[in-house]
Automatic annotation (TrEMBL):
GO terms for cellular component: plasma membrane. NCBIfam families: FtsE. It is found in: Cell membrane. GO terms for molecular function: ATP binding; ATP hydrolysis activity; transmembrane transporter activity. This is Cell division ATP-binding protein FtsE. Belongs to the ABC transporter superfamily. Keywords: ATP-binding, Cell cycle, Cell division, Cell membrane, Membrane, Nucleotide-binding. It comes from Candidatus Doudnabacteria bacterium RIFCSPHIGHO2_01_FULL_45_18. PROSITE patterns: ABC_TRANSPORTER_1, ABC_TRANSPORTER_2. Residues 2-225 form the ABC transporter domain. Part of the ABC transporter FtsEX involved in cellular division.
Length: 225
């Protein structure tokens, strides 16, 4: 599904990624680990076309992301759901409305939205909180809304960038359990994190980045740093 071929990314003379080659197959759950500044977020931003590499090639489902036109990036991103640590919910919209809005901006019809949003909220365990506003939710609930929003287009790939960074241990574990559930339903998941205990509990593939390079790639791996 994803292939990095000798990818290098440089920002203002700082090498964020150096000659990275990596493949992620359909249906995998990959924990992408490393210290802050190791290159995890850069790798994710390249996948969604937010940045382009200085050299090397990136393929998603045989689409060369490095060569894609700016006007085509929105179509690429419909294949990809993204969850950020800072969540970015619309504060004056309910959980239901935050998820619905993601479908509205892509032009979905009202009857489709009314059918799909309850299904998505049920998947993330938020049916009873559908009409709650962000300020009325716990950190874990807000992160679940963010995940629901990312799933609104039924993406084939879900990227989660430090989704548990602001959560306590119990809520963080719940979010990881939800990501595993989503993966088991068929969505490829890449989790970028430095939460050692959570990575070790997942017991899935672990890719470790240090100073912009992949130093470990283990099936059913552990946090090695």
């Amino acid at each position: 599904m994803i292939k990095f071929d000798q990818v290098t990314k440089i920002y203002d003379n700082l090498t964020a990624l150096k000659n990275v080659s990596l493949e992620v197959h359909k249906g995998e759950f990959v924990s992408l680990v490393g210290q802050s500044g190791a290159g995890k977020s850069t790798l994710l931003s390249l996948i969604i076309g937010e940045d382009k590499p200085n050299s090397g090639r990136i393929f998603i489902d045989d689409i060369d992301v490095a060569q894609i036109r700016r006007s085509d990036i929105p179509y690429l991103r419909r294949k990809i759901g993204v969850v950020f640590q800072d969540i970015r919910l619309l504060p004056k919209r309910t959980a239901y409305e935050n998820v619905a809005f993601a479908l509205e901006v892509s032009g979905e019809k009202t009857h489709v939205i009314e059918k799909e949003v309850p299904k998505i909220l049920e998947m993330v365990g938020l049916v009873e909180r559908a009409h709650a506003f962000p300020h009325e939710m716990s950190g874990g609930e807000k992160q679940r809304v963010a995940i629901a929003r990312a799933l609104s287009h039924r993406p084939v790939l879900l990227l989660a960038d430090e989704p548990t960074g602001n959560l306590d241990a119990i809520n963080a574990a719940d979010i990881i359990d939800l990501l595993i559930k989503i993966n088991k339903a068929g969505t490829t998941v890449i989790l970028a994190t430095h939460a050692k205990e959570l990575v070790n509990s997942v017991k899935k593939r672990v890719v470790t980045i240090e100073k912009g390079q992949v130093i470990y790639d283990q099936q059913k791996g552990k946090y090695m740093l």
